[in-house]
Structure formats: C-alpha cells, structure tokens
Design goal:
The protein is an all-alpha fold. It is built from 3 helices and no strands.
Length: 77
C-alpha cells in the first residue's frame, strides 16, 4: 500500500474511532474543496459564456454539497 493509501486509512480509522482530530481533518478536506471551487476559473466549469442561472450553476451546487458534508461531519460525525 502506498503512502496515500496509508494516510487515507488512518484518516478513516480516526473518524470511526470518534477522534476529534480525524473529524477535523475530514472537514478540512471539504473546506479546501470549497476554496478550490471558489478560485476555479469559469471556463473550467463549462460556463464561460456568461453567468449561469443559480439552479444550473455547477459551482454553486458543489459548494452547497460540500457545506452539507461539513455540517453532517460536525453534527453526526
């Protein structure tokens, strides 16, 4: 198993064990995803020809789902 696999397994074991550090690490990954999504250029989302409506904005939905994941880990994790 490579080092990324070992890191992932240790994060999963930490979350399953109820460790607050493991939960914080998983939430930090989703937080980093939100930062990347906010900084991503519009042409990378397929909507370079103008601002899409909110219901068809891929970036908005991805950020919303990441926020829900953070809330789920914070509340039930």
């Amino acid at each position: 198993m490579n080092s990324i696999g070992i890191l992932c397994m240790s994060m999963i074991e930490a979350v399953q064990g109820g460790s607050w550090a493991g939960k914080a690490a998983v939430m930090a990954v989703f937080g980093l995803l939100i930062v990347v999504l906010l900084c991503m250029p519009a042409h990378m989302t397929g909507k370079a020809d103008g601002a899409p409506r909110w219901w068809s904005n891929v970036r908005l939905w991805a950020i919303g789902i990441a926020l829900v994941q953070i809330l789920v880990y914070a509340w039930w994790g």
